[in-house]
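Saturday, quiet lab. Running sequence design on the structure tokens for the scaffold JK sent over.
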């Protein structure tokens, strides 16, 4: 078991196997959650909620690799297949049957691309898990924490259009915010943050305005105090757009972070 900054405890599959222990879920952290300091905060928030709900899970630690999603979107199917087969081999080694993904890109890849490569595990988004926890553990959240605040939601492409998850994120936000606002383009018509299809790893192409800036303009028009999303790439792209704007009042957070803020009797 590892302890991150003395705040959250996470079991590792290799350690569990050496002790003949098992858990229900693999928590797939993802590349951004593993390497980006800002998004590591999201992972910690989600893990704290998981620990309070007593759901049993573990991570792969150093055995976790990239899903190969970006390579596939950019046209290198060979690298994708290599990554997929390697990951599936690790899943089979630990007899993993259920996978929770924080990143919608990883979720979409496991759910829709990996079955063709032989994956047989059940794949769920962390939004689905959070929805189940809120339904069964409402008492651990203070629904008055944001009573004087407003929030709008940015739909990640790979969560929304690719997999039809629109209502669950909104219901989670409406659970803790009384003032929920929609951007002019939302749900299936929501504008991409600009990172999809491997664009996150490329230089901006010629044009009048970057997509991330355009999307942020749409979101800022709601005049919400908080902008919420459910994707690491959306968070990074919109955060960058906010830094380049004149706004000093809006903040972007992941839904897991906002829920974690409302936890009753937090010990840290």
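Result came back. Writing it out in full:
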């Amino acid at each position: 078991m590892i302890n991150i900054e003395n705040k959250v405890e996470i079991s590792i599959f290799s350690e569990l196997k050496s002790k003949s222990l098992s858990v229900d879920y693999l928590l797939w952290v993802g590349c951004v959650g593993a390497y980006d300091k800002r998004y590591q905060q999201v992972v910690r928030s989600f893990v704290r909620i998981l620990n309070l709900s007593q759901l049993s899970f573990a991570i792969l630690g150093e055995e976790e690799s990239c899903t190969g999603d970006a390579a596939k979107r950019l046209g290198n199917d060979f690298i994708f297949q290599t990554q997929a087969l390697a990951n599936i081999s690790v899943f089979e080694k630990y007899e993993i049957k259920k996978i929770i993904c924080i990143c919608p890109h990883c979720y979409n890849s496991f759910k829709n691309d990996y079955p063709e490569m032989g994956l047989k595990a059940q794949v769920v988004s962390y939004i689905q898990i959070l929805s189940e926890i809120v339904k069964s553990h409402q008492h651990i959240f203070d629904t008055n924490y944001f009573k004087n605040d407003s929030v709008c939601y940015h739909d990640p492409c790979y969560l929304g259009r690719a997999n039809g998850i629109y209502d669950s994120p909104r219901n989670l936000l409406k659970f803790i915010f009384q003032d929920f606002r929609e951007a002019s383009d939302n749900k299936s018509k929501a504008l991409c943050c600009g990172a999809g299809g491997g664009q996150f790893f490329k230089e901006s192409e010629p044009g009048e305005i970057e997509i991330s800036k355009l999307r942020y303009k749409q979101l800022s028009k709601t005049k919400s105090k908080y902008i919420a999303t459910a994707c690491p790439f959306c968070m990074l792209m919109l955060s960058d757009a906010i830094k380049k704007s004149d706004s000093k009042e809006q903040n972007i957070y992941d839904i897991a972070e906002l829920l974690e803020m409302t936890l009753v009797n937090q010990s840290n």
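Notes for JK: Residues 1-6 have pLDDT under 50 and may be disordered. Residues 37-53 form the longest helix (17 residues). Ask whether to fix the surface positions before the next round.
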